[in-house]
Design brief:
Elements: H1 2-12, H2 27-38, H3 56-70, H4 75-86, H5 100-127, H6 138-149
Helix pairs in contact: 2-3, 3-4
């Protein structure tokens, strides 16, 4: 019985945080608002879209998106408006333009540098002269025998 109750409770939880009062009457505009808000980061929850977040700031951003759409803005204009206000951090998928290219390229460049360093190290190590093992002298052999007797 407890398991059934837990399953029902889990199924009853809302998938989205959009409240009924926020939903637009026009289904096409509501679909556009949902698509836009799924690409915008909640500034409170950090790694959650404003469409999924229950934070008051996320609600304000959802309402702002809907207001801009009702004002006649295109999807790109709505996103540009919010990015102008809150910075590029608000985008869940940041654009690879301008200074962001450095961040996008840093990982692969560091990987290539590490591989180059590994190849150079291994090449230098293989070319280094090998040490010859020397046999023990008579004094060392006697000393070793004495140590092993004890």
């Amino acid at each position: 019985m407890k398991r059934l109750l837990m399953i029902l409770l889990l199924l009853a939880t809302p998938l989205r945080a959009v409240e009924p009062g926020e939903v637009l009457d026009n289904p096409a505009l509501e679909t556009r608002a949902r698509e836009i808000s799924q690409g915008l980061r909640c500034l409170v929850c950090r790694n959650e879209s404003i469409d999924e977040s229950h934070a008051p700031l996320a609600r304000d951003l959802r309402l702002l998106v809907r207001d801009r759409l009702l004002a006649g803005d295109s999807d790109a204009e709505v996103v540009d408006f919010i990015v102008a206000r809150y910075g590029e951090y608000v985008l869940l998928r940041p654009q690879a333009t301008g200074a962001n290219w450095l961040l996008w390229a840093a990982g692969p460049v560091m990987l290539l540098l590490a591989l180059l360093a590994a190849v150079l190290y291994l090449r230098a190590r293989s070319r280094a002269p090998r040490r010859q093992e020397q046999a023990l002298s008579e004094a060392e052999t006697r000393r070793l025998a004495e140590i092993l007797k004890d």
